[in-house]
């Protein structure tokens, strides 16, 4: 049961003078130990671990423990009693300073063990109890009751693990792990894990650590080679002794850091979903497990809180309102489900809804078998790969399952499956393919598309044009590039060359970043965040050779192919200028526009930038003094919706004409009209202008300002036709004739009866 | 085939159109593309004469299915056209319900249009199809009712009234120009029996031709659907329509070979969403730095497999039957003060401390690259790709010349070499500006054609983009290592596999849930008694399987399963163990129940797990509204009468 599977862990840290010494350029053992402690505690918190942790310091001036009496167990202080890891513990770790007092490591172990014992006594669920000792064993101690102490620890199942700068020389051999390589699970400070082939830490060795120690700073953790003092040798011997007796382990700082450097989100316990694998009347009980699924740590779920008082969580209210100008709120009881059928709304009652549902039972049925080549990777659908194994305890069907997997494997076929999770869910189509290892046999299940999910796009043959056919030299250049960037054997592994950048070893940089950011923000709330940038940056070392080798071939490739960035970019930036995002200076060639569909974040960005501009230029009203300039500013800054800006400009134009003394304001009005026309064309809104100019034409007659109309004719400010703007529905001919007609009323939408060929032209004009 | 017709022949399938869309999209944020189609229907008296039997015969000749699309109750060309329009509407509602449609009748006695043109009658203005319109069209094609309705609405059918095709086309183009929505494709389908409508009036004929040309100039497409009756047995394009439609002689030959093909397609019900070939994004593919500039080509990214969305339920106002909208307000729980976005910060609680971020910071954490695109990491042998290396549906990429000229050639070379060497490209891919990068494998895809029909392309050349999991996504699972099966057991399975082997194609199986729902909604909307029938091919065909593999399965049972084995019985030992487990679980259930009730009173149900609460609900027979955590909590609280 998950609830009982926790650990009691006492972190015991030597803070004596001996830990505070280091040659220049190296971190002191104490500093490194504190880093490791922080990582351990952070990891416990991020994984929402139920493990309980205590922090014991020895060598400090303080004494705070239950055993202290008459000068015994002095200078040992429990600064954080056993409990679930929290920020107080973290703060305590940050507060750690080197002490000056005498420190007895055996005392410290006893205090810690006793604390664990007293705190866990009578409580259930502690699967393991551990003392984790950080020391370089440089200070003297008394080893009077060592045998008794060790026996006591064994009696209470308390293990001693130790982490120090080095356990070298005589004790190396007693360390249970070979030098350098420590499997994660052995050292995983959470709990022993099931055999885990995917978590080997080799790649993470060079990953940045929680506290921002990059690759180069890691050098510092390597302890300077310095012979151990006799005192240290004695200390190490004692520690090794207890550790061996209690089945504990010993790690160097480097090993510990390596394992802890990658943030791991909470491990998910595998839970099985049971099905019966069916075909004809063969029924095999099976279990399916999630093998691969995009990991979205629960812990990243953000709450909306009140900025002025972050303690307060903000509530959201999602009310239903009528979709009209009235915006009237509708009560829950007044709402009914429905579907859209074209423009018709079809209300659906609860009973209808049930009746409309496709009925299916829970199932996992084989529909048939097909050659594995028929199921291409590009068809895969869904977000999960399931592992399927036979449910244990049914010997015959277990055998049948194994035989099926082996037969699929032998024949290179897969089975097409109809799967339905429950009678309430929709059935899906998928396939299972065999997977056989020397100690493991299973099927992988992945969902497949229905015909409705396929988009049968066709693309032209690339060889169709001569210019797209690569020459032999070009092909050779590509060939060389591939060879120089072949990652298949690029990594030096334990047993010779190995694959580089294995998915199994690359951690999601976003999750890493998120953890880093949380840790940083938690500790230094006022500091800005900073990030690393690419996947490669984290794993560069394993690919450095590749990068070096490929530089030459890449240059060759670049010479062989003529690649030219087109003018299109420039056009696009103009497009952006209209939308007001241009004030952020972007170099040409950088703005390779991307997204076709509108995505939330993208528009957010535009809005934000638009808001920024708005703060700068708060023009929201077109004045009569410089109407055209105002208009342009508004359009650029988007401080008003386009239609509103146009409306205001139109009002200005009509005002100018109407109030003009003689033709005094005509030029100004005309300039505005020209501007409006250009903008409408640019923004692909021809109708705004077209409607206006049509009305203007009529209006000019009614107010007897025909002289202004003449100006319009002179300037050829006719309706915008489809020639000028693809959005326009106006024929070019109509645009041409629009200016020619002197009497708009006569031609209003009313073609005469036309029988003669001569009139045909006129007819055209009218459209 | 019908699918393809919808997909490609009529929609934005052709390259030119694609380009145009792209052009207009770049500067714009919103891109909804709609098609507009107007049925322009001749209502001369021939349209009401008995339909040619030839048409009926030919309509079922070509395709492999033996059903004819012209049913027996269709007696006249007019009915047939109305039936076609109805089917078209119904198909559109599913395939592309944003598209607009209209119907204009010409040669009617009564006129209805905004110009006072004679004998031109707008039956449907250009708009989205609706249930009412479909029901109306159904009546207009129904054997018993259509004439009455027609006569009432449009007048007599015995005479041919002198109309002008020019004016009819003009009315069409007017509908297009008055459309409030922007239309990507504008089409007019002309239905007529009359191959020379203005035989006696050269002027009208010339006008019509000129008008057709003008329409063509502004991008309105014209298509003709000829109809035959028992007396009109031939339709001669050369008399008039070849000119008007500006058909080359080759086109004409093709049309004349199968004159009713297109109409037949119209009459087919299509229950599938239409997907316009449109790039998901066009992004740079970066090879690396050469000096201080980036070597890059440009690729377009397409989605070729995506779950087809189910029609979404909408919430209607009971009183008006109109759509409602949701308004989200953020407020302070205590004062109910409504908050602005600037009042909101984002926090998460870790080990009792609330850690705060600004919205911008959350975005910044997700943003790795300045711009979306592919970044080359290297190449690997195909064998490095493990069967479980999958996290989500992939893409397809194809070179793009619009941004970087020469992309196609480099892309092609890369493709050829990867195919040669059996390798895939490893890249870091950022799909959008503020999405974290993923590792992807670009799997080379060779162009392939059907062995039997060499013109039928099965696969296009390009790379499939397969998303790779991160270490975080791969879980470690218990080992399963039972004894291996014996050769004769395996052999039996091989025989079964061989017997039940079929050629899987992803486009063969329809989604039963979706098809059922579509049909049900349609039935509700059109007041039908019951939805159209749907045959679910995903259900295993037991009879056929029995036929082919029944004997092997019998053999297998004797080979593996003990006598009397029913498939669901556990072995004795196991059963005993199970009994213990059951007892235990019973006990723990009691404990759980107590725990849950305490938690509910303390208001700390949130901390418990869903399965525990589910068990509790099942035990106590509590009805829940859903399976989400909150649903369960609400249900338990309600059960224990605790106000939440």
UniProtKB/TrEMBL annotation, chain A:
Its main location: nucleus. GO terms for molecular function: ATP binding; damaged DNA binding; double-stranded DNA binding; helicase activity; hydrolase activity; telomeric DNA binding. Residues 166-235 are annotated as: Disordered. It is found in: Chromosome; Nucleus. SUPFAM superfamilies: C-terminal domain of Ku80, SPOC domain-like, vWA-like. Residues 8-164 form the VWFA domain. The keyword Nucleus applies. The keyword DNA damage applies. Residues 195-211 have a biased composition (Low complexity). Keywords: ATP-binding, Chromosome, DNA damage, DNA recombination, DNA repair, DNA-binding, Helicase, Hydrolase, Nucleotide-binding, Nucleus. Belongs to the ku80 family. This is VWFA domain-containing protein.
Automatic annotation (TrEMBL), chain B:
It is an enzyme of class 3 (hydrolase). GO terms for biological process: DNA recombination; double-strand break repair via nonhomologous end joining; telomere maintenance. Signal peptide: none annotated. It is found in: Nucleus. SMART domains: Ku78 (SM00559). Its main location: nucleus. One of its GO terms (molecular function) is hydrolase activity. Residues 336-485 form the Ku domain. Its EC number is 3.6.4.12. Gene3D superfamilies: 1.10.1600.10, 2.40.290.10, Ku70, bridge and pillars, SAP domain, von Willebrand factor, type A domain. It catalyses: ATP + H2O = ADP + phosphate + H(+). Belongs to the ku70 family. PANTHER family: KU AUTOANTIGEN DNA HELICASE, X-RAY REPAIR CROSS-COMPLEMENTING PROTEIN 6. This is DNA helicase.
